[in-house]
Amino acid sequence: MTYEVEKTDEQWRAELSPAEYQVLRRAGTEPAFRGEYTDTKTAGVYSCRACGSELFRSTEKFESHCGWPSFYDPKDSTAVELIEDRSHGMVRTEVRCARCGSHLGHVFEGEGYATPTDQRYCINSIALRLEPAEG
Asked: Per the database record, which ranges form the MsrB domain (predicted)?
């Protein structure tokens, strides 16, 4: 797939920390309950740490107690792309930034959360950058 933001592996390695690179470019997962935004309640917009594309809003963030920031809907349905992930002996839906293809996390459905979409976008904190709302 071709993305609006295309960089070589060497460019990504130079721009991202080793931990950011592992999650964003190698589909890694940060440890549960340790991410910067897991329990954050700050109002604002969450953007892709790799390219700055706006992905989620704090108004769609909810407490799922799963160990990672959870959102029930992306900021814009075209901001993320969903890809079938059959790694680790499971079938899941991977969430990637639609602008640069960076791995963000996974989305799950039908878990019974009291959210408008019954979806949980389980996103790695290290894949995001929060831009607090002004005021």
From this structure: 9-133
